[in-house]
Amino acid sequence: MNQDGSYFSMTIPPSTAKATTPGVHGPDVPSVQPTPLKRVVSGAALKELLAGGGGTQVKTPSREDTEFRAYAHSEIARDVATIKNSVVMHLTATFLRTPASMDSGHAYLASAFSVRDRLLQRWNLTNEYHDKIGAKRVYYMSLEFLIGRTFDNALLALQLRDEYAKVLGDVGFRLEDIIDEERDAALGNGGLGRLAACYVDSMACMNYPGWGYGLRYRYGMFQQQIINGYQVEAPDCWLDSPNPWEFPRPDVTYPVKFYGHLVRDPEVPYRYKWESDVEYDAMAFDVPVPGYGTENVGNIRLWSCKTNGLFDLNKFNAGDYNGATGGQ
Fold first, then answer.
1. What is the pLDDT of residue 327?
2. How much is the pLDDT for 204?
3. Residues forming a β-bridge with 301
4. What is the pLDDT of residue 29?
5. Which of 64, 82, 183, 278 has a Cα at 20 to 30 A from 171?
6. Percentage helix, strand, coil, to 5, in the chain?
7. Rounded Cα distance, 159 and 153, in Å
8. pLDDT score at 296
9. Residue 31's pLDDT is what?
10. 326 φ, ψ to 5°?
11. What residues in the chain have per-residue pLDDT under 70?
12. What are phi and psi for residue 79, nearest 5 degrees?
């Protein structure tokens, strides 16, 4: 603001400026009351409301962009400069880090997300090709997938270990130290879980269109602790930090019912129906599995349970926080 008040004179009407600026009320200028704001529904929420709450129809592009298609069907450059630009971009833009605030944990996450970009591009091309030729897929279901650490395995499969070692060395880290920053995926404990992971990895390496299906354990299978000579099972909070190797799919969600009991249908003899069930949503998370020496990328689809009950604002306003979040 200029000393002569020219800023206000150019941008805000004088009466409004004096009435809304503390300390500049004058006797001849009445106080202006702000106009009450009305809450309106707009955008996607308005469309969903007009559609009756059943969701809106998703629009697809009216034409295909040749540049977008060319980018999607070409592999990201494998030179050190391109890799370094990708890692630095994730450090600064994804994790909001500077050279002064970066540590080995951030370097791992930025490098892992850089590798994930390459895996997801190959994953898209793999599925597009299988859909195009109408290939039948192999689905392997398992309660455990002991996949171990993905970062080092992905670098070996992509044959980019030396390049990433050079990039990390330039920013002051050893590749071996960055690899140690990754936590094992707590999706299994035993030999059957390791066998299931090997099946999916082998299918990817052999160019088979194979997927694994399992559960995304929020607190792991369990974390083994030895206390006073006895095994104690504790939660494994492996998802407290960002997991670069999973891709959430909120568009792939199915209702799943738990609990309840059978009752006889009074209208139809010898027919029973299920009542008093509780419905949750199963949401998919995709974990790409790269094949070694091939551009084929397999997939492990893990299902996570989430509530579809809304937050009860009335109970919250009444001070009943437990009741407001009870459905979750």
1. 59
2. 95
3. 213, 286
4. 53
5. 183
6. 35, 20, 45
7. 10
8. 94
9. 57
10. -60, -35
11. 1-58, 308-310, 325-328
12. -80, 160
- Give the residue among 137, 141, 144, 93 at the shortest CA–CA distance from 117: 93
Distance CA 200, CA 307 (A): 30
DSSP structure string for 170-221: HTT--HHHHHTTPPPP-S--SHHHHHHHHHHHHHHHTT--EEEEEE--TT-S
Strands 261-264 and 272-275: antiparallel
pLDDT for res 20: 45
**How far is the C-alpha of 69 from the C-alpha of 151, rounded, in Å?**
28
What is the distance between the alpha carbons of residues 123 and 299, in angstroms, rounded to a whole number? 8
Alpha carbon distance 79, 141 (integer Å): 38
Could you give the CA distance from residue 296 to residue 76 in angstroms, rounded to a whole number? 15
Name the token pair of 85.
Answer: 């630009």
Amino acid at 139: Y
- Write down the pLDDT at residue 323: 72
pLDDT (tens digit, 9 = 90+) per residue, 164-189?
999 999 999 999 999 999 998 989 87
End-to-end Cα distance, the chain: 51
Per-residue pLDDT, 19: 45
Task: Give strand ranges (E) for the chain.
Answer: 138-141, 210-215, 223-227, 230-234, 247-258, 261-264, 272-275, 278-290, 297-307
